[in-house]
Batch of 2 targets.
Target 1
Amino acid sequence: MCGIVGYVGKREAAPILIDGLYELEYRGYDSVGIAVSNGKELKIIKKTGRVKEIEAARSERGNIGIGHTRWATHGDVTVENAHPHTYKNIALVHNGIVENARALKEELVSNGEIFYSDTDSEVIAHLIADGYRGDLLDAVIGACGKLIGSYALAVYCSDEPDALICARMRSPLIVGNAKDGLVVASDLSAVAEEGATLYSLDDGEFARLEGDEVTVCNAGKNAVVKEAMQFDLEEGKTKLDGYRHFMRKEIDEIPEILHHSMFNFEKNSCYSDFYRVLCQTEYIQIVACGTAYHSGLCAKVAIEKLCRVRVEVVVASEYRYSNPIVPKGTLLIAISQSGETADTLAAVRLAKRKGAYVAAVVNVKYSSLTRLADAVLYTHAGKEVAVAATKSFNAQLAVLYSIVGTLAAIEKKRAPTLRGLAQKTAKTISVSEEVRGWTPYFVGAKSAYFIGRGADMCAALEGSLKLKEISYLPSEGYAAGELKHGTLALIEPGTPVVAIITRRNTAEKTMNAVHEAYSRGARIFLVTSFAEYCEMDEVCASVLIPRCLPEFSPILSVVPLQMLAYYVALARGNDPDKPRNLAKSVTVE
Ligand code: F6R
């Protein structure tokens, strides 16, 4: 959700900014801009659309600059609303949301100040310029003191043309020394390079990038000593390696990732502390959003069935406003790929205040969630570039199912085995190519439905979300038994219905719903581990996936659904990696 990059040093800034912005494009891609200064003149180039729109700006000369990819929150997608925003001697790029922007703007307008955009970010430029008394750091600290909300800022001032000032509050920001210069970015991948020493700012911290030194301080201007980040250059790489899209590549990465996620589970540094809590817990709450919420639902099915421990799964944005009951001894599991989802972080802060022990199932190292949580269980999915989550979902399941295995042993239940899941996923990926043949039935459909029971229902929810977000085809995921309670009214001749059937003792029940839909003209597609259902007359097409413990089956059954979404999106002419209106990592409420 928006990306920031900045550079000051000996090299030409523009190519560094533009290359960094390509790395950040998955975070936001409705408009883009850079500001580059040669010490005398500040050149600003802004365009709507993607980073390639400003390719020509590569030739701009200057050793200091800031850049931004935008995902609109305040104001339409226009050049005026694109960053950098300027006022008087100030230019800045901003991620996050200023919640009191309207009130601040009204005051500034009543003082005669003129605004050129509808953004909250422009308000910050005004506050800094108005407060500037010869020290940019002071002006930024003063302005931030007036802001309510979240921000990551990189600020340039034409009166101090050799420095950038950066600030962070609830929106990630990394600063550090790179080759021949100093860098700032909202995401490691934009600035990570051989030999770089990078630091992740904490909330309320400010950094000055000048000369060959990065200095970090708090709002009282007390110096803060930072620990350098450990990063793996390979992990941050975003190469298509011959694939057309990251989404398809990321699906192919799943088997190896599952192996890593499971293998490293007990190697997480907090594992023994987490294990101690797990031994005592009688009640688990899970908070997450979107796809991560669905992995939470999958975990609930498996934990309750196999460990007989009560689990409640709550959408994070609801949790935070529900005055949740958090009994003593509650283990709260927060699931997040990015570790920066604002709603999830807010839910975690609330749960902590109420006394819960928080374990994070998270993919991104140094993310905000990793700092808030009492225990961090990494998913080892590597960088996920496609906006639609695929491999991170499976990796979350690998970690959550590892928790299930541990908890089952603690509860003296038969410990379920995860062995073979990675190999079975590889097999599932190869058979899932068959869904390409399903696309003609979905491309022109008005809507589609996904049904299942238990764990299959969780996979249905995720399959439906994937389809709608990248193909823009309205779709619903349902408990198979619920279809007849209302949604059946929407089934018309030709409506695609995908049934997921991996559990023997509810298979016939799901098939009842299939028959009901089929009798109303639905076209039936199956994802199942039982060959006999594939042969049935009602079934238009099917994918036969390997069998595994039914409670763990979403890790396999979701794969053909991810592939279906991908191929339908392609057939409908969409870019599966960058769906409209969406962005990776939703850092605003
Ligand atoms: C869907 C998708 C989103 C995210 C959700 C939470 O494909 O990616 O629904 O799952 O925004 O994001 P994280 O996991 O980063 O907290």
Target 2
Amino acid sequence: MTSAKILIVEDEPAIQELLAFNVMRAGFQAVCAEDADSMWRQIQGQTPDLILLDWMLPGASGVVLARQLRSDARTGDIPIIMLTARSEESDKILGLESGADDYITKPFSPRELMARIRAVLRRHIPQMPDETVAAGSLELSPASHRVTANGRAIELGPTEFRLLHFFMTHAERVYSRTQLLDQVWGTQVFVEERTVDVHIRRLRVALEPFEMDGLVQTVRGSGYRFSVS
Ligand code: CA
């Protein structure tokens, strides 16, 4: 197996170099970009397995770029870890809502960064069976990575896709945030319970145009339930 290719998007040369050094030392391939244009050029050359995306970039910010990456079919599945000097909770939520899979605040320890990269890559290793699953008029195909509602395609980010797959295969039961984290994100991941709420919100927003957002139900004090009944 070839090592995963990490695209580092960071405009400060010293930090870019430090990131590349640690990524390569951990056995991954590193490619670098210093702004949006060079990021898109790199992606056109070869799709990376993960993007480390700095929040503060010249021109388009990391948040804007994360949204663009997510909304493009060719890049929508690439995991993103946002790098930022901001530690405000609201910024964190904004970063996740823009499409990042995880978030790390500068200054970070190389050890923590590598643990997060490994965790996010592990999450994206397909572990789902290939069988298409259906619930009501929703159909989800892990093999083609497509979700349809009454035959119309629904665009979902990778986390929402896994979350919906879990819900569709575990309908009518209530799961706590912690249980969802374990089942969907994996047990070795450093994410907070609030992350679940962010992705639930994104899943509902994606289902809303099909009037299916009500399938994902909040169970007060307990967690969430997917119900088609
Ligand atoms: Ca920067």
